[in-house]
């Protein structure tokens, strides 16, 4: 059986798709976020308090220079996610759908062009120890993200997507534990489609289509959620979220004790000199 291939889109078809993509993003922005797989997420006072508390903890850890933080405190935890350039988890920007990206926005933030933005985003992603990063996570109101360029990604694949749209997903789903740079030490089991097809604009403004599988598919779906104002804690029930927060708080306490011991050791070293 021969493999079917799609013919390239005509200029008219490409322009129509871009228009439809913009309309979809604008509709998403107007109507808000859709229901999650496990039901509608309730923004309860309890969860708000946890977000505010975590923001304060982040502020404390921001005093530690990134270069002084070891790459790994314990298995599965990357303290480099605590970087002051990441906006706090409780910031309403993170729970608001991002408006469609337009090149004119770059000038407002002193960014030369898309390529400069993409290069900066990948640099920030690596600095934070991430596998994906959305512009909104660092306070930039751009509907775009970078993903990949990491040892856990198949064949070293890397992508930068502007105005991404998910065209289709596979019926097969996979449950996997996910983390997020916005929520340090918080890891939650989330069910997502194994495969997805995404349409997007690349760093040159060209329309592209990506057929994704495995880890790259999951990362891009996670980052796409950020464009829709959907955060990782919204993907699970309150009970599962509370359990995950308890584990995260324990890891936070371990990290604080580690930092206290590290500072004490550094102080002793200075005194001896």
Describe the structure.
The protein has 273 residues and is an alpha+beta fold. The protein has a single domain, classed as Peptide deformylase (Peptide Deformylase), CATH 3.90.45.10. The protein is built from 6 helices and 7 strands. It has helices at 11-31, 45-61, 105-108, 114-128, 214-227, 238-272, and strands at residues 132-134, 144-148, 158-169, 173-180, 183-193, 195-201, 207-213. It has a 5-stranded antiparallel sheet. A hairpin with a 2-residue loop joins strand 4 and strand 5. It starts with 10 loop residues before the first helix and ends with a helix.
Throw out a few tags for this protein:
273 residues, alpha+beta, Peptide Deformylase, two-stranded antiparallel sheet, 6 helices, globular, disordered N terminus
**Which fold does the CATH topology refer to?**
Peptide Deformylase
What is the spatial order of strands in the main beta sheet?
1-2-3-6-7
Secondary structure tally, helices: 6
- Our Rg estimate from Cα atoms comes to 20 Å
The first-to-last residue Cα distance is 75 Å
Number of β-strand runs: 7
Largest sheet: 5 strands, antiparallel
Count of folded domains:
1
The structure class reads alpha+beta
CATH superfamily placement: Peptide deformylase
Shape: globular
Helical content stands at 25-40%
Q: What is the CATH C level class, in words?
A: Alpha Beta
| The CATH architecture | Alpha-Beta Complex
Topology pattern, helix = H, strand = E = HHHHEEEEEEEHH
Contiguous low-pLDDT stretches (5 residues minimum) are: 1-6, 31-48, 58-84
Mean pLDDT: 75
Question: Strand content of the residues, in percent?
Answer: 15-25%
């Amino acid at each position: 059986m021969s493999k079917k291939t799609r013919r390239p889109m005509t200029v008219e078809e490409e322009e129509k798709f871009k228009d439809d993509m913009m309309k979809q993003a604008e509709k998403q922005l107007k109507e808000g976020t859709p229901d999650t797989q496990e039901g509608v997420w309730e923004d309860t006072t309890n969860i708000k308090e946890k977000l505010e508390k975590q923001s304060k903890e982040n502020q404390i850890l921001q005093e530690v220079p990134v270069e002084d933080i070891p790459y790994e405190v314990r298995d599965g935890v990357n303290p480099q996610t605590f970087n002051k350039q990441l906006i706090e988890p409780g910031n309403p920007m993170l729970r608001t759908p991002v408006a469609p990206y337009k090149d004119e926005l770059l000038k407002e933030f002193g960014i030369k062009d898309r390529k400069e933005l993409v290069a900066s985003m990948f640099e920030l992603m690596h600095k934070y120890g991430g596998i994906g990063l959305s512009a909104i996570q660092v306070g930039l109101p751009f509907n775009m993200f970078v993903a990949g360029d990491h040892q856990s990604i198949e064949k070293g694949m890397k992508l930068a997507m502007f105005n991404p749209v998910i065209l289709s997903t596979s019926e097969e789903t996979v449950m996997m534990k996910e983390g997020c740079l916005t929520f340090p030490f918080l890891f939650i089991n989330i069910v997502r489609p194994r495969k997805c097809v995404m349409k997007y604009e690349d760093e040159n403004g060209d329309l592209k289509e990506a057929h994704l599988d495995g880890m790259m598919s999951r990362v891009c779906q996670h980052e796409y959620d950020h464009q829709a104002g959907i955060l990782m804690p919204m993907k699970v029930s309150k009970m599962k979220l509370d359990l995950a927060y308890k584990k995260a708080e324990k890891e936070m306490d371990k990290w604080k004790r580690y930092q206290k011991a590290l500072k004490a050791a550094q102080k002793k070293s200075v005194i001896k000199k």
